[in-house]
Structure formats: C-alpha cells, structure tokens
Amino acid sequence: VFEDASLAVCEVAKEIAEAIRARQAEGKSFVLGLATGSTPVPLYRELVRMHREEGLSFANVTSFNLDEYFGIESRHPESYHRFMREQLFDHIDMPEAQINIPQGAVAREEVFEACQAYEEKIEACGGIDVQILGIGRTGHIGFNEPGSGPHSRTRLVTLDRLTRLDAARDFQGEHNVPRYAVTMGVGTIMDARKVYLLAWGRSKAEVIKAAVEDAPVESLPASFLQAHSNAYFILDTASASELT
Ligand code: F6R
Fold first, then answer.
1. ipTM for the complex shown
2. Which of 91, 124, 128, 160 would be 48's cystine partner, CB 3.0–4.6 Å?
3. What is the pLDDT of residue 151?
4. What is the pLDDT of residue 19?
C-alpha cells in the first residue's frame, strides 16, 4: 500500500526496468503483459520517462495486451490499439512486430481461431514474465467478468452492464459501448510468472477488499489471484481503505 499512485507506479516501473535490463544483459527477450484503462496511465508515463531520461530500451520486449473491444476497428478513437499507441508505444522503442493486442475487428466465425492463435503466440514467446492488471468494479481482470472460470483462456466475452456503464462516458453514451470483447482468460493471466494488479481511489475499495479477503469465487474473478504464487496488489491508501 502506497501513499499515492505516483509513488506506487515508480516502484513497479523500477522493478519492470530492472527485469528488462537483466534480460538484456543475457541477450534475451522479456515478455510484458499490458492493460488499458485509466489505472496504468501513470505507470506508462513513468516507463516513457525512463526511456527518455534513463536510456531504458524496450528493444528486447515483446508485449501482449489483455483485451480489446469486439467489433471495432483498431483506428476507432476508443480502441485499445489506439490507447496503447497514444499512451506507450508511440513514445518508446519497442519494435512494431513485437506488439500484440487481440484483434477486435474480426468476423465472428473467425474469433475462436484468432483467440487460439493469441494463446499459441504467448506460449511460443515463452510465456508472460510480468502481467500488469487493473480491476473493474465487477471484479473483472482483463474483461473476465463475473462467471469467468479460473481456467478460462482467451475468448469472446459479453461485457457486464456495470462495465459498459463505466465506459459510457468515453463512448459518449452507453448505447455506443460495445457489448462484447476479446480477452485473455483468467487461466492465461494465472500462467504469467509475476502479476501486478494496480488499483487507485475509493471507488475500488470494496472490490479490492472482496478480491483479497473473501474466498475465491467465479462471481469475482480477481479473487482467483489469491492462488497465484507471485501476484501483488499495488494499492494507494484510498483503494486499500476497506481492508481489515
Ligand atoms: C483493461 C482491462 C480492465 C481494466 C479495468 C479497470 O485492459 O483489462 O480490466 O483494467 O476495467 O479500468 P480502469 O483502470 O479504467 O478503472
């Protein structure tokens, strides 16, 4: 638990940078799992600063994003492709070919195969070294809404009403928010060697308490992280305020 988000992200960014540099020293690549939404924005800002001011290179990094809205083109203003470009990829030296984000603009009959290919690519790259997560008020990680099982893999999912309401402002109205998304599964996330779940602000306090203190259940997918041997909840005092 940190006093505020900026102190918290400095710590996480430092650990990620150390891990990337250690791999560089061995001439090996590093696989980073990334999230979107407002939560990781200050983390990406800090990584960009480290790239500009401290010479942190992402040349050996391969990234896999958690999710993308289904049925929207990558150039859509609210696509996660666009978000990642604006917040991170346009400002660092990660080669284009090493960036992976689930495709939202695939035909429905091709989604299953695309999801399988995504899983296979993660595996072919040696698995995810560090996965960054946010948490939704439904308890989702990625877009694994309540009802997602602990062994779920990358797939097409239906977004929860609360998640769509939370996204309504960005999309200028709930009716514009996609109903479906493609997301890595809980099982995909659990396979990452290290997980950082970040959460800031009072609005996340209840869901953080339930995820950390209640028994793991499908109705709150983030609670499955309790069974991960190397998962960290990185919180500010407000999001930690309901913890006993
Ligand atoms: C985004 C994602 C979601 C968000 C969550 C929190 O890639 O996977 O799980 O992390 O909805 O969103 P924010 O950070 O906007 O509160």
1. 0.99
2. 91
3. 98
4. 98
Report if residue 30 sits inside a domain: yes
Distance (Å, whole) CA 35 – CA 88: 11
Annotation marks residue 11 as catalytic: no
241 domain residue, yes or no: no
* Domain-located, residue 146: yes
What is the DSSP secondary-structure string of the chain?
Answer: -BSSHHHHHHHHHHHHHHHHHHHHHTT--EEEEE--SSTTHHHHHHHHHHHHHH----TTEEEEESEEETT--TTSTT-HHHHHHHHTGGGS---GGGEE---SSS-HHHHHHHHHHHHHHHHHTT--SEEEE---TTS-BTTB-TT--TT--SEEEEPPHHHHHHHTTTTTSGGGS-SEEEE--HHHHHTSSEEEEEE-SGGGHHHHHHHHHSPPBTTBGGGGGGG-TTEEEEEBTTTTTT--
Ligand 1: atom nearest CA of 134 is 10
141 lines ligand 1 (CB under 6 A): yes
CB 46 within 8 A of CB 13: yes
Residue 243 placed within a domain: no
Q: What is the pLDDT of residues 139-198, one digit of tens each?
A: 999 999 999 999 999 999 999 999 999 999 999 999 999 999 999 999 999 999 999 999
Q: Which domain holds residue 216?
A: 5-235
What is the total count of domains within the chain? 1
Sheet of 155-158, strand order: 67-69, 180-183, 155-158
From ligand 1's centre to the CA of 97, what distance in Å? 25
Catalytic residue among 78, 86, 145, 206: 145
